[in-house]
Write a structure and sequence with these properties.
By secondary structure, this protein is mostly helical. The protein folds into two domains: 214 residues, 3-Layer(aba) Sandwich (Rossmann fold), CATH 3.40.50.620; 73 residues, Tyrosyl-Transfer RNA Synthetase. Helix content is 55%, strand content 8%. The structure holds adenosine-5'-diphosphate and tryptophan. This is Tryptophan--tRNA ligase. Keywords: Aminoacyl-tRNA synthetase, ATP-binding, Ligase, Nucleotide-binding, Protein biosynthesis. Its EC number is 6.1.1.2.
């Protein structure tokens, strides 16, 4: 049985791109009984860029509520909040002392962020070491991440290797990264990749009225209603294809090609599809956000289980280090 672990950023309410591209596939992977899986919300990492306590708290809840609402099975997956495991920050100190300064200084993500952000703090610099502890503290075998995290995973392996070499003993387990080769890219309402940073998202977790308005903003061309249209170049159709059945997609294609079918019609169908397909998760999300103690209960249960795995690893390391 492989132990799979991954972390998710607490950057706000997940959008349709996050759901189709990351959350649903991860839930499917976690449901495979061959795996033991740990999934956590990296809300200590959030502090490197967000300093408002209320925003950190709300984002963490929103991310947790989305995963729970979309069907994460918390019996099978150990689901927790990074900040509920303070031991990870203790371990970060130990690993810091084995991490070469130039390795962090040359990290792509640090160089990129320190060029862009005005707040270049030591936490931002040390981000990869905290991330390494997130992984190494649980003896993880496999870490599924996006390609942008490749270097962070290499650093994790290097840091573990350096500790093991220094201590002359296999103290920390070196994990493998796993990259999904056929990740889908969900287009946003302007046709570019859907992303919070581009402000082109579709947010399922809002009222029907707002969701409809959100869908109506999808950018289309000016072909008049009565003219035939090319579905394959249309942003509405591209998104519809990702959420509708083959039959429904074939019908919409015919409608586009026949003419007399406007983009407004297509948007209305897409809106209804999203509303109906996600009706349960949307209701459940709202329920959880109105009853945050239920989210807390789930996350605390997960933290307890995570600590049972993590603490012995930390003790092992402390002992080997002479403490
Ligand atoms: P954003 O670009 O909105 O800031 P993140 O970088 O926080 O999103 O991504 C969180 C997860 O969601 C990652 O696993 C990422 O690959 C996935 N993801 C984000 N946007 C999309 C998209 N448009 N299509 C598919 N997957 C996406
Ligand atoms: N840095 C990761 C990201 O930006 C989030 C993360 C933090 C993570 N700790 C982790 C991912 C540990 C995998 C394992 O997406």
């Amino acid at each position: 049985m492989a132990r799979i672990l991954t972390g998710i950023q607490a950057t706000g309410v997940p959008h349709l791109g996050n759901i189709l591209g990351a959350i649903e596939p991860a839930i499917n992977l976690a449901n495979d009984p061959k795996n033991e899986s740990l999934l956590f919300i990296a809300n200590l990492h959030t502090l490197t860029s967000i300093k408002e306590p209320e925003v950190i708290r709300e984002n963490t809840y929103a991310v947790a509520a989305a995963w729970l609402a979309l069907g994460l099975n918390t019996e099978r997956t150990i689901f927790y909040r990074q900040s509920d495991i303070p031991e990870v920050t203790e371990m970060t100190w130990y690993l810091n002392c084995f991490t070469p300064f130039p390795m962090l200084a040359n990290a792509h993500s640090f160089k990129d962020k320190s060029d862009r952000l005005s707040d270049v703090n030591a936490g931002l610099f040390d981000y990869p070491v905290l991330m390494a502890c997130d992984i190494l503290m649980y003896d993880a075998d496999i870490v599924p991440v996006g390609k942008d995290q490749k270097q962070h995973l290499e650093m994790t392996r290097d840091i573990a290797g350096s500790i093991n070499h220094n201590l002359g003993k296999e103290t920390l387990k070196q994990p493998e990264a796993s990259f999904d080769e056929n990740v889908m890219i969900v287009p946003g309402i302007d046709g570019e990749k859907m992303s919070k940073s581009y402000g082109n998202t579709i947010n399922l977790f809002q009222t029907d009225k707002k969701l409809r308005k959100n869908v109506m903003k999808i950018v289309t061309d000016t072909t008049p209603l009565e003219k035939p249209k090319n579905p394959d170049t249309c942003n509405v159709f591209k998104i519809y294809k990702l959420v509708a059945s083959d039959e429904e997609v074939a019908t919409m294609r015919k409608n586009y090609e026949a003419g007399g079918y406007g983009y407004g019609h297509a948007k209305q169908e897409l809106y209804e599809k999203l509303r109906d397909r996600y009706s349960e998760p949307r209701e459940r999300f709202q329920h959880l956000m109105d009853n945050k103690h239920e989210i807390d209960q789930e996350l605390e249960k997960g933290a307890k289980r995570a600590r049972e795995i993590g603490r012995p690893v930390l003790s092992r390391l402390r002992k080997e280090l002479g403490y």
